Amino acid sequence: MNGQRCYIELNTDAFAHNLACIRQLAPLSKVMAVIKANAYGHGMMLAARHLDDADEFAVTSTEDAQQLRQNQIDKPLTLLSPMFGESDLKWMSENTVRPVIYDYHQLNSLRSDKSFKSLDVWLKVDTGMGRLGFSMEEIQSVYNSVRQLAGIGSISLMTHLAQADQPNLTANQQQIALFQSIVSEAKNNNQTYSECSILNSAGVVAFSENAMDIIRPGVLLYGVSPQRGLSSQALGLQPVMTFKSSIISVRRMPSGSSIGYSGTYTLDQDSRIAYIACGYGDGYPRHAPNGTTVLVNGFLVPLVGRVSMDMIAVDIGELPVNVGDQAVLWGEGNPVEDVAEASGTIAYELTCKITQRVSRVVIQNT
Fold first, then answer.
1. Per-domain residue ranges for the chain?
2. How far apart are CA 197 and CA 124, in angstroms?
């Protein structure tokens, strides 16, 4: 054992590899690397420093933007769903930070705040996501209102695809067509958008031919496939995060033995059960069902019994597995999207939910 009950390895070489794969999909577009939510649990500062070839970064809050600037990250920043506080707009205008304007409350803040100079902004239009954004009917008048404000620099336009992880759905093409029509109509009305953006990670994979000025990949950067039925390996991606632990006990159990809380799993034959030092207290999903894969000594073995706070059990049969051997909960050799699918969730949730007691090990091979 290495003395750590469980830990995540972060392969920083994978950042550059994945970014290169993304650029191949949309070579004519700039890349806005989405590093919100602490870079999907991978570490915002780590991601920012190892995605230096990205054209700009996107985060959620002013606090994230300020942290990046305080740590000498000087790439242009976009705030995807900002809430404005006093003096925030002035700070943004002075620090190359573009807020996304998505409702009239924000628009009123722009009108009333006279402190900023040359603030570049995004406008967001809702083409079918049903979340943030102005309606199609509103967006032209919103543009005109913003364009008339003193202190406004460039105005860009974005939308968000709601179902790009299911590319065969007609809703995707409908959203794309609606956005393209808005852009075309704006040109006809002499409205100038500095940049337009429509594709998230799933959109980049499925609809790269519709890439505009900037694409907004998130989970792709971390080596995770955003598409159902399409593996990260098929996309040529490398996982940045590998979640590891060790075998702390191996027991031979007779047929008929119940494993774990509530006796939710019963052995139907004699077997060996290995116990791994990782549970929902570390971020492993409590709702992971029997059969969820864990990689032990190069073998994919099934989870058995209910996930505990501090440990899980796997059925290793007669495989050569002993106390102290390494287990990969997800990552290299056991893709996180497979664990997520088995658990009825998405990979984003799993990587974001790693808890503070899990240590981090940064590795770099080049």
1. 12-222, 241-363
2. 10
Residue 106: φ, ψ to 5°:
-65, -40
> Which region holds residue 313: left if phi is over 0, alpha if psi is between -120 and 50, else beta?
beta
The pLDDT tens digits for 101-148 are 999 999 999 999 888 989 999 999 999 999 999 999 999 999 999 999
Summarize the confidence of residues 4-10 as an average pLDDT. 92
- Domain pair 12-222 / 241-363, same fold: no
**Which CATH code for domain 241-363?**
2.40.37.10
- Partners of 57 in beta bridges: 33, 77
- Give the Cβ contact number of residue 26 at 10 Å: 22
Both tokens of 209, joined, read: 């031919």
Please determine, for residue 1, whether its predicted confidence score (pLDDT) is greater than 60. no
Calpha distance 184→279 (Å, rounded):
52
Q: How many CA atoms lie within 13 A of 148 on its CB side?
A: 9
Residue in 216, 222, 236, 204 with CA at minimum distance from that of residue 352? 222
User: Is there a contact between 253 and 271 (Cβ–Cβ < 8 Å)?
Assistant: yes
| DSSP H or E stretch at residue 92 | helix 88-94
Superfamily of segment(s) 12-222: Alanine racemase (3.20.20.10)
Residue pair 93/119 in contact (Cβ under 8 Å)? The answer is: yes
**Which residues are identified as catalytic?**
36, 261
Q: pTM surpassing 0.85?
A: yes
Give the integer Cα–Cα distance in Å for 48 and 39. 9
